[in-house]
Queue: 4 jobs
Job 1
Amino acid sequence: MTPTTFDWTTFRHTHLRRERVLGVVYLLMGLLIWFLFFPSVEPGAQAKFGLNLVTAVKPPPLPDLVVPARGTILLVGLISAFIGGYQLARGFRDPQALMGVVLILFFVAFIVWATAGKSFNLTGMLASTLLRATPIAFGALSGIWCERTAVINIGIEGMMLSAAFTSVVVASAVHSLWWGLVAAMITGGILGFVLAVLAIRFRVDQIIAGTAINIFAVGLTSFLSSSWLSVRQDLNAAGNFKPIPIPVLAKIPIVGPIFFNVNIIIYLMIGLVILTHIVLFYTRWGLRMRAVGEHPKAADTLGINVYFMRYVSVTVGGVIAGLGGAYFTLGSVGRFDEAMTAGKGFIGLAAMIFGKWTPIGGFIASLIFGLADALQVKMAIMSVPIPSEFLLMAPYLVTIIVLSGVVGRAEPPAADGQPYVKE
Amino acid sequence: MSVQDVAVQKAAPPPTPTLRPRRWVAALQSLVLPLLAIITALIASSVFIIISDTELLALWRDFFAAPSIALTASAEKLRAAYSALLTGGLGDPVRIWEGLRTWLATGDNTAFIASLEGIDRTLVYSTPYIFAGLAVALGFRCGLFNIGAEGQLFVGALASAYIGYSIKGLPMIIHLPLALAAGAAAGAVWSAIAGVLKAYTGAHEVVTTIMLNYVAFRLSDYLLTGPMKRSGFNPVTPPVEPSAWLPKLAPDPLRFHAGFFLALAVAYFVYWFLWKTTWGFEIRTVGANPNAAKYAGMSVARNYIIAMGVSGALAGLAGTNEILGVNHFMAQAFSSGYGFDSIALALLGKSHPLGVVLASLLWGFLRAGATRMQSAAGIPIDIVQIVQGMVIVFVAAPALVRMIWRARFLEEEAETIFTRGWGA
């Protein structure tokens, strides 16, 4: 978007109408909450939320959270309708931000509706949210490293899949999960470097190069797993990293079991989110990365080696995607299955966009996608009267909705996707 | 391409039917690069064939002790693999000749017909590739990267299967076109979602179409196990009424059907649409330079939606073709990734309908041959995808091929840039 001078006519046509639309949407959401969820809940039914998670580390137990289902749904719907009404009558300063609030209200109503008359382990769901968000967050971080230097990495999915494969094979062969992790990082790094060479040296269209990596990875891993692993089952049994409780912190109720009793790859992910944030915004290297991504020519003029920055960043992005791949195998099931990444790399890219190319934002976005995924599984177990296939669509639909900018428009790095030709 | 080029294209009409000799040379030269790309990919995949064989690998471990054993064994493996590829894709010439002789001598054509199975399979396999390849190629011409062909294929197949089995007693002349139209329309609607999102919100079509793929797969899971399930155990739809079948054009063990000619007709239609109509001109202009198109008064958003819709219709036809021409019912595993393969086809065919048709024939041949490679030489069929990934890389990176083959004679051509980042 180029900044333009203020123009009242356009402002009135775009903004005022949009604000009114948002108000109506919020109001309708409130009504929708009532109509969808209220009638099918029995009067007096209670929704019981468990807050304790059964793990090896036992934080002090908490009492269950019990709420009256109908009352909560009414209240939540009322709040949403009130927001809509207020928006129509007076107007909030930032009506877009309220979309998040309204969506959360809708989500609360949905959970209460699904739980009415049953019990639901809230902490358990939040814990599985983090687990499911981890590969997405790795994907988002990988994307951030690449795209901050203006190389689009659509091959994250393929990098993850390949790394998942090599990590299991190496870990099973040498009986060491750590070497498996190293193998995953190397695999990711190599593919990242390949993408960099294709995009920078040969100036291949970046999306096509990434797609080639994806197709290649799917083909190669399926090929090797059906020709090799089917014969050598012993190479596909690596075991997995066990959760490591962090002494004091793991004892904190709710937060402890979710964040401080997980396996090493998840700690690595959280560490990388913080590290990437620091590198990107508080170091000289990060400043250079961003300069190369926003205006490579200017960066070049100032003596920054654009190609070098891009090679290194994209390779690092590959290494991170490799770690994400290792999570699928060493971090969870301990074995490789064909096409096991199931689009998580692409969802990671959506999380990156949703998080506006920032590590923290990307992480939060990953948690939202992880939540959609975890909820889908929980709902299927709780036999909610929605076909499981539709629940399975949820993460993908959420991705589409998020990408369409319902939650605000995102600005990519200015030179994103454009090869740089040094003059 | 700049604005001037676009203007020049408009001024100079597309190639006239009378090709001058120099044009032929140029046409042949443009074949060199794709061919080299395929050869490179095949050589590289030979390496994978060797390393995937544990016995061969063991021989290579003793390479320095007995080099000739490892080499001959590998050569033997590759010979078996590639001869299986050839006979699988084209047929065994000896069998064809014998069959032809028996037919001429005794009038019994069963052996001859059976010997044509290879070529039959190639043509049947290449038909959906032509449709899907055209879908991606048309998107490329508008600067859109439609990775969602697979999902569009699924919804197209679902719609045509539904029309095919639910309506009974219609004459073929109405039922078949209706089923075809339903498949195309479903694919068009599915991809137009991505087109609309791209046009009005800037959501990148690569991610939205991939997400729509997953949604389409889950949708078909749901429909095939629920509302559209045939009574019985398997999650498949009821059989399509014969009045909606694409007519079969070859006797029985063969499966060759009218879909192949329909595909060729559609390829011509795409050529006509892109190069002879105003809509096509606008689409190509937007693809070449959206800013120039906007400046010239064209609606970029409208063209994104149209191009995406037509592209989806073509992909939907790929699925429809499989349902009405080959399977005659819809099952979850009806597509062997035609939608994903089509990306390679569009690139290999340089997004030109004729190129796509040729690339599809090659791909149909590879797929038919690979099936035979799997049964005869024990090489997993996924090898096709490896070849495919490499072909995409090599075709998209002419500089790479030039470097590998030291081919300086290949001219530098203007490399089209499809990517315009995530934004508008």
Note: Chain B touches chain A through 55 residues (CB under 8 Å).
Job 2
Amino acid sequence: MAFNDLREYIAAIEKSGDLVRVKREVDWDMELGAVCRRNFEQSGPALLFEKIKDYPSGYAILNGPVATWRRVAIAMGMPHDTSIREIYAAYEERRDKKIAPTVVKSAPCQENVMTGSNVDVYKLPAPMVHDGDGGRYIATWDIIVTKDPETGWTNWGMYRFMTHTQNMLTGWPQATSQLALMMKEKFLPRKQPMPVAIVIGCESLCHMVATDPYRPGENEADYAGGLRGASVELIQCKTQDLMVPAHAEIVIEGEVLPDRIALDGPFGEYPGYRSGTMGEGVLVQITGITHRKNPILTLTTLGIPPDDSSIAASLTAGVAMKRGLKRRGVPVKEVYVPPAGVTHLIAVSVERGGNRVARQVLDFFTARRVMVSKVIVVDSDVDAFDMDQVIHAFATKCHPGRGITVEHYEGRANALTPCYDADERRRLKGASVVFDATWPDDWEPEGIPVKSSFETTYPDAIKKKVLAEWKSYGLGEKR
Amino acid sequence: MKKEYVTFVRRLRDLSEGKELLFIKDLTPGPRKYDTKLVRANISRQADKLPDGDVLWIRSETGYLHSEPWAMKILEELPPYVPGQPWQDLFVAMRQL
């Protein structure tokens, strides 16, 4: 079942016990962020703040729409206790399906309209998320819509934007992002502003698609339809030639300016640090703001995992990586992006290991823009979704000399990787490493160490007997 | 009543006493808190050097807050942007003004 809008999704997670309504007044200036952050660190429910200081009654903020696997499962229309592996499998099965969007003439997201001199972004309750942020990040869990003026390709991405003045935002799509490539290739050479729509508060699968690294030229709106199993309704913006989800809560329309810049950042970002990405972003002139009556601003108070970013990206990036590795001929079995690794650490299991395969894996992750810095490759008998098993394989099978391969690069590193120094971040200079925790492919089978586990050590007859008699030993099952 | 602002620099050592071009954020409570201005201002580590000045808090590029605020007297308010291309280093662009 597809949710038509955020409000239907909120009703569903409230029914399942995954939402708390905060009815007392909360200050948008850090108090709200602090509540959300502590709640994330306890893997708590989604929070719907219904009374925001300085703002009209009815204006609300929703933090953490998909910050737990339970809520991701609900967003996908699955039982809330679906396992992570099953959620990955369902996403993988649906990921390539396309359902074209439907264009509508009127929409809830345009119930209220501000244009021209009436534009005032301070009429919306943008939170000061963390102490020390460069400003009020109104767009954290968003969809940023841009369109290629030549091909008509409409890109959805997820990037941060903060309030600058009442009619300007600054933001930081990474310089290697698809938004940046479109701006640099299609607008900057002509010194033209790039139309942009900052969409806030859709049902969750639309936002998750925006985090999925679909290839340039692919319209994420089609894939959002496929993932939902229902067409996404779109409506024309009021002031820009862009189509946006009709059921969004808030749409900020504007232009990325080609010849003016201002201060963006710093911001407590998804790796869990304010790592110094500041003053290298973009400036948006707002041309219009539309919103529903009593708008709900979606927020993810980024930081130490888990949060929406680390959970959603685990799923969308993990499935996309598996596809990419297969395309490259890697005998991949499973890919898992552990949320605690914030897309910097990836576990890959392969049907056939060895140093050459590990090198193939590293080549895939470093071929273009590089968001991943550490990859652990394990044999297929290791459950990539079980980090205890992955760590055991890494600790025992990765040769400290021969099992580690490092690739250095410049101009395409992840500027948010906290261990890079300021100069590396600015030059997008970095490195990625693959830890080969597989048995070498040239070892003779009789010489390969045998894993000492119940499953691998004993004859079938013994195992069968032990399992049959288990309770008679006075033992129960693992809780 | 002195107003309070905050500015961001890469490092505190980048800031010099005297006339500076700064993006500042207004810390006056209310729905417009953190509104940004670009100003030319006289700034000083010592409040008594700018007795009619406002309070300027300083944070680094990681948001680190320096414990002692400076004093600031706004001389001129400019449009809230500088010439430059997206993703260009803002502080380099500001030095060229």
Note: The domain at 328-447 of chain A is CATH 3.40.1670.10 (UbiD C-terminal domain-like).
Job 3
Amino acid sequence: MSVPSPSSRPASIGGVLWSRLIWRHWKREPALTATLAGILALGVAVFLAVRLANKAAVSGFGLFTESISGESDLLLRPRSGFFETSVLRDLREISGKRPVDFFPVLELSGAVQTGAEKPDGDLLRFVGVDLVAIGNAIGQSEEAGEGVGFSAEEGEPGLLGVTDACLVGEAFARARGVAKDDRLRVWINDRVADLRIAGILPDPANRPAIPENLVLMDLPALQKVSGETGRISRIEIRFPEGKAEGGIRAAASEGLAAWAQERGHLLETPEDRKASVTRMSAAFRLNLTILSGLALLVGIYLIMQAMEAAVTKRRGEIAILRSLGVTPDQIRRTWLTEAAVLGLVGGVLGIVLGRLLAEGLVGGIAATVNTLYYETTTDAVRLHPGEAAFSLVFGLIASLVAGWIPAREAALTPPSQALRQGAQGGGLVWLRRWPVGLVLFAAAVGVARLPALTFGEGTNFPLGGYLAALLAVLGASVFLGGLFPPFARLIGWGRGEAMRRYAASRLRAVGGRHRLTAAGLSVAIGMSAAMAILVASFEKTLTSWIGQLLKADLYVAAPGSASVANGNRLAEVDWRALLSLPGIDGADTLQRHAVTYEGRELLIGGAAYHDDPSRHLQLLWIEAPAVIGPDALETGGAWVSEPFARRYAKRSGDRLTLPTPSGPREVTIEGVYADYGNEAGTVLVSRRLAEEWFDDRSVSNLAIYTSPGVDPEAVLESIRGRFPALVTRTNEKLREESIRIFHQTFAVTYALEAIAVVIAVAGLGLALAGLLLERRNELATLRALGATRRDIARAAMWEGLGIALAGLAGGLAVSFFLGWILIGVINPQSFGWTLRYAVPWGMFVFLSGVTLATAALVAWTVGYRNANLKSDREE
Amino acid sequence: MKALQVSRVTKSYGSTEVLRGVSLSLEPGERVALMGPSGSGKSTLLNCIGGIDRPDTGTIEISGVALGGLDEDGLCRVRRETVSTVFQFFHLLPTLSVRENVEFPLQLQGLSVKERDARVDGLIEEVGLSHRASAMPHELSGGEMQRVAIARALAIEPRLILADEPTGNLDSATGEAILDLLASLSERHGIAMLVVTHSPQVTRICRRTLEMRDGLLLGQEE
């Protein structure tokens, strides 16, 4: 960036204008300029941070485990369940003599067993690879001069053919405080195994770090300890460099694709696989990104406010320039240049800050993705040049948008110095027309009714909802101009205090600066309060859902069941033994299987309910089936979760074809139930059907009803004594846990809102500092009349409170509408959840109190610091 | 007791000596004109007397109260209760009406509504603006604005009024009228007045005229 030095001789009229109008004023008020750039920087930083953190939070998925053999060219996996090892023979047959390497992988989830306490929460990913095949491939690639994922030296010794040996990454060892040759007692599927750490894998240099929860084993060893003998999860396919070029490679790919299609398997590139998985959380991450734009939107108002004030202050100067022949276009360009330079400086600072901020956000986002969508591990946050450039351009555009209206105001200044007298009036006439706000509101209501844009594979984008939110926010910004007179009357009520009346008189004569500051505050408050409505509605719905759902006395799950990605199960022999323990009256049982349906992950649940109609799981119905009861599913129908129904536009009576290991199965939807536990979508059938389809009699969850008169805690203890690895909770504990997870998923949103409110309140301080600077002569008069510093600070406080009140009232008013958009439009269209509208009045009181108190404090401080500003009166 | 006693006051800004040992005094009710070219130190002297600025050396006493011993709050109290200023550019608070401008210093003093009303109504009537009491400053002529400023200055019943070019921004007829008003009000209320001016017209309402050059009063009182 090239900024002309004040001492340099400007070569053109543009240079003269830049130097006289902008640069000198920046030099005169460096704190103000720095604050403006800082606000913009914070906006850009939050935006960039969320994007980087989003990337890092989901980039861990599969990057290591999906290409364990190095850089796979293709991935082959079944739509559901496992392959049998014999599939490798078929593959070798169809590829004939073509040079293709196949690497079978078995991937299972499990947990470190830490005793009776809490094995849950420490979910492990066990990956079994064929070390012989990889060893061969390494030999070949080294001949071709290429490295692969991990080396034979690290992998082979002590691992090959040894059933109790495993390798872990450095992060795993650090997190759990283990070293080579230590032993790990783990739970895989329904078995407990004692593994020896045969080695610690160092993180590879040019690839993502090895995930903290990865345990690597030899394939046959993992098959043996997990009981999945002869089974594999997927096959990684590689065409060796230099041996399978052009035509050979294409022919091999075609042959494999035809074979996979014929058998109903999925053949994808690793990139396709990653994209299809991360698409699951796309709506969640998009919502976060849009929310992150909030800080920048608040920033736009503040930049606009500051630049508008600068135009007002320098209007006399602009008039002189106009009278000397400077054209409106030249004036406009000068102001836009100021906006652009501010945007660039703020943008560059924002990139640095955003990179740091991303570190703090990534954990929170990853935790939510883990809980709601799929297993992910965080990658180190990296500053992607593309993301940095995008954020810089975004910040620049925001700054130019903010500068456009003030630039136009400046250009419209007539060439008359007489304007100097009226310069205090302020511009932005459009902001004074508060009825325009009502028109924007009406437009918002109309736009909100637009249907979602639908992309392939069930991804919906609620464009109408977002547009409606933007229109409503703009409407509130304009409308709140009409709130100043009543608030001025409120603050100036009575005839008591001099400074309060003086502040009220100032609020009666508000300019663009007051309005824009209040508008910025209303955006921040409006969005924060709307999110609070969303959270409250979610919580209310969830609490009622959990209340209806959780009727059992005890809940038992295989380790890691908090994550929907978990595939851990209890073997039939175990859960039947568990249910035969004394004091147990019966149970609801559920088995879950992840399948790929229309390119996306889907859970098929097999449920069997307690025989007693009054003692079994009660679902919350969106579309109730004709028959509800323990045997309702036994007739072969299916109940689908609301997210599934919305995503694929399905309803009761529709037919579904589900992919299962035993071939496609057709079911009829008989009911749609609310499910706030996952967004992936679930199809519930009877456990009997699922057992048949998946050839699996294990279960993942049990809801246990104790016999009348039996203390659930006593039963809980006996289960823990007999099955120490299982996750066991009482009804109350599970409720608490569910609400805790719920709040954890909103942690990042809370942080983003807080940043927006902080920016807005800082903007209030900035605006007041600017206003006092403009009124330095008036301050001198007040002092001459005997007003103390504290008196002037008090006047600033009342004025700041007036602005904050207008922003708060506008923000809270618009939040009801925004809340409705979030709950009634964006949420159902993005996630497929129906929520009950709830207003968190307590939170509103808290938000209002904190905003007003902070605004008062900031305004008082600004007033006190500026009370002794020297007048610019001439002698 | 003198209304104002200034003794050997000096004031410098950086290396520039603006006041170089100024001394003067005013009796209660006395009006004195202070003339001199721009940059001679008149306004700085006025600022020091009004407690806006502090002299480097020397003492200033208003009705026996030495300003040097007062902290910021003490100086504010002096401006609230003892000394008023009338400015060349009027400096009315632009968002307050005529009545509110006049009432404002009384509110700062903490007077009751009843006391304020009685005093404000009388003053507005005295300066001939009863019919414009609810007008805003931007609706007034220059002469009217200065009348409001005078009424505001009188509201606190000061011992001393400092007038900084009170007619400097007015046409000559209006200026004459304002001078007559100042003279009559100062006489009626017994208020001393120090008027900084470039205009010889002002001297006609003053008992004495002092001239200031280069930070010193010519023929300065000892």
Note: The longest helix of chain A spans residues 328-372.
Job 4
Amino acid sequence: MAASAAQIGWIDYVIIGVYFVFVIGIGYVLKGKMKSSEDFFLSGHNIPSWVTGLAFLSANLGAIEVMGMAANAAQYGVMTAHFYWIGAIPAMVFLAVFMMPFYYGSKVRSVPEYLKMRFNEPTRALNAISFAVMTVLMSGINLYAMALVFKLLLNWSIDASIFAAAGVVLAYTYMGGLTSSIYNEVMQFFLIVFGLLPISIIGLCKVGGWAGLCEKLKEPAFAHLWMHAGTSANPMGVDWIAICSGLGFVLSFGYWCTDFLVIQRALAAESLPAAQRTPLIAAFPKVLFPALTVLPGLIALVLIPGLGSNNEGMRYDMALPLLLPMMYPSGMLGVGLTAMLASFMSGMAGNVTAFNTVWTYDLYQSYIRPNQSDQHYLWMGKVATAVGILISIATAYIAMGFPSIMDYMQNIFSFFNAPLFATFLLGMFWKRTTPWAAFFGLVIGTLTAILHFYVLTGHEPFVYTSVMAGNFWRSTFAWLACFISTIVISFFTKPKPEEELEGLVWGKPKEVSTEVLVWYKRPGILAIIILVFTIALNFLFW
Amino acid sequence: MLDIRIPIAALFIVVGVLLVGYGLAVPTSVDVPVNGNTYTFNLNRDWGAMILLFGIFMGALVKMDKAKPSK
């Protein structure tokens, strides 16, 4: 079976058009509120936690999340849910309970700025540059993935899709900054849920419910989360040690606890408890998201013969997009397509707003033009937004040249995010960690990942049964290299004076919140509820 | 600052009305097998109604908050 262009009617175009009007309209309404750089980059610290929480989740709901997880489910089965239940929720809880007090309490404007306050300028510069490059690359990949889907599904022009989506994202992020991005992410979250949920419901009925789906899967291991993880002889090719260490610890904590893209949403919250609740509020829908991504991937595997073949339109990446015209008539197809567009655009806008903040505060203000007026930095933030989108368009075209850009980007993540988490862990919880130890630890961790990928992989004992297994183990090695080298170098270099570490290190609090909260607003209680629920799901799908 | 629930309510009401209207004007049935029986739905009309209800719910939340006496 080859994928053919779906029939799209006028009603579908009207629904997509209405969506575009609303996202641009939100930017337009917020335009007049952007009076200072803090308004533009940090939303003036006055957004309620349910809004920042859903934005925290949606900023991560880009192409790789929605399409990629469905594709992984079609390729690896239910084990893909590990990316949520061990690869996200524990890290989100850790960020909320233990790390957010340092981020929010220290009043930093970005993650690299925390590294400057806790360590030194070189550590900040290293992180700011690597993050800026990563974010625009990721943003471009969202654009390219979107354009490819619409080309294969609807025969739309790749150029037109890229420029139209980039133009809309530019319009609302340029006018309304982070607030506009956050508000649109919340709207996009609900669109994604309402646009994709019927696929799971109808699809599950068509395959005979969960029991029918499990029977129809090509291997029994496709229906289990942990049962076949004792060894690497399972669809994912990864054993439980690699899952727990590589994904459950290093990769997930490295992403959720240090990536400014998501943390920026929490920093926009109105208070410290609200900032702490942000990842926890995001965790509640996140724990259920496999129903919108993993489940359709499994359904596609059963309902679409030939999925995963070499034909470009039948790649695993197309699992979810191919289900849209199969399940939806014209009308709902417009809602489904809008959900996909919303996913791509929220992922792209998240990257662009994180990029403009890091560029303006951590690179431009710090090294290029310090001591300028606030209005100058507000102007630079808008310029950075436009330039970031232009670079994203360029990287979208560069991405077309790579045969497997998703795998390539996961490698890049394991190079930079995995060692960064070791730096943060030591920096926040061990006051003896020295500035130069952090810098060289980061460099050594990144070099270890590069060495592992380009030199060692493929040679005994670094032979892996899947690309993902290689990613998990590389992350573990990079983290260990950074962790150990940072500790060793710390003993030979000078630590920061203790008085400079107030509010930045565990045991040196700057201010303690004395606010008494009702039980459902307390981060600790929310954390316990979400962890218990996650553990229960792990047993349910064992 | 803009209350985000207002544009969400407006968007979902507009999309809901469009879908329900289109579903009634151009009925398209979707067959869903459940436990050996096949149920037929007008997906545009039915899911459009859900979307419309969600939009109304969001709008009602804004109304209720505005009706509350300010602290």
Note: The CA atoms of residues 4 and 300 of chain A lie 16 Å apart.
